[in-house]
Amino acid sequence: MTGATIDDALVDAVCRRAAAVRGEVGSVVAAEVDALAPLAGPGERALAISRCVARLTGLDVLEEHLTDPAVDEVMVNAGRDVWVDRDGELQLVDRLPDGAVDVVLERVLAPTGKRLDRATPIVDARLADGARLCAVVAPVAVDGTTVSIRRHRRRSFGIERFTGGDTIELLRELVARRLNVLVTGATSLGKTSLLGALLGLADPADRVVIVEDTSELVLDRSHVVRLEARPATTDGIRPIALADLVRAAMRLRPDRLVVGEFRGAEVLAMVDAMNTGHDGSFATCHA
Q1: What is d(CA 181, CA 82) in angstroms, rounded to the nearest whole number?
Q2: Rounded to an integer, what distance in angstroms lies between the CA atom of residue 103 and that of residue 169?
Q3: What pTM was estimated for this model as a whole?
Q4: What is the 3-state secondary structure (H, E, C) of 83-107?
Q5: List of E strands, 104-230
Q6: Interior CA angle at 261 toward 155 and 80, to 5°?
Q7: Cβ neighbours of residue 236 under 8 Å, at least 6 residues apart?
Q8: Rounded mean pLDDT of 79-87?
Q9: What is residue 173's three-state secondary structure?
């Protein structure tokens, strides 16, 4: 499949025909590709099927970039320009047709129950595969729809990935002595990954309760409780803020209380938790 390319017109035609046929999407698309492009080679056929399935059920052309193992984040500026963070370097890789990203957002947000429109112009969501999506539309996004999708890393890293020698021994001691730890740094520097590595040094028997705005922390351990915040909805369902979850977590008997990204009132709730004996707690914040 290396070097295979596919005509956008073929993708458009297959998707139009497949959308009118009932059945399993992959099988329907494969049949339509075979009908419309009978001379396509194996690589071209596989790419066409993948593109069409992504357009009908997923993130369309953005999905190609998200499946690249070297890409950590995919961004769309002004509804058109597609940028990726590949190995820590930002690269402009594609341009979308007008309106294409809005169609993608409508489709992927539908199962989450979240709205994105002029009345609710900002949305944060966790997609089915765990990726974290943030999108902003007009009038807040002045130049057009802006999107950032951060891949969910399905693997955790050992502490050796971040440091070595005496520093590892110091970190092991910090965790073993149940000191409270705050991991700080700029955006996309690996705070969450480092937090996961530190928790990997904790006693495997510890009960870890994690509170996050959008779930993304990956832990290779069995005794984990995950709590995720919820925004208010347009039909009157009240929000569940991080501060609410921190207070709930304190009643769930945590050996380790973990809060991803301090932002507001949850800071005081976390300090209260540590003052009531929840030593060995962890958190991250942008700083």
Answers
A1: 37
A2: 51
A3: 0.66
A4: EEEECCEEEEEEECCCCHHHHHHHH
A5: 122-126, 132-136, 146-150, 181-185, 208-212, 224-228
A6: 75
A7: none
A8: 90
A9: helix
Task: Please provide the size of the chain in residues.
Answer: 287
Distance between CA 185 and CA 192 in Å, rounded?
10
The span from the CA of 157 to the CA of 193, in Å, is 7
Cα gap 76→272, rounded to integer Å = 40
β-bridge pairing 208-212 and 224-228: parallel
Amino acid at 4: A
Please say if the pLDDT value at position 148 is more than 70.
Answer: yes
Amino acid at 96: L
Query: Rounded distance, CA 143 to CA 70, Å?
Result: 28
pLDDT in tens, 188-245: 788 888 999 999 999 999 999 999 887 778 788 888 999 988 877 666 778 888 888 8
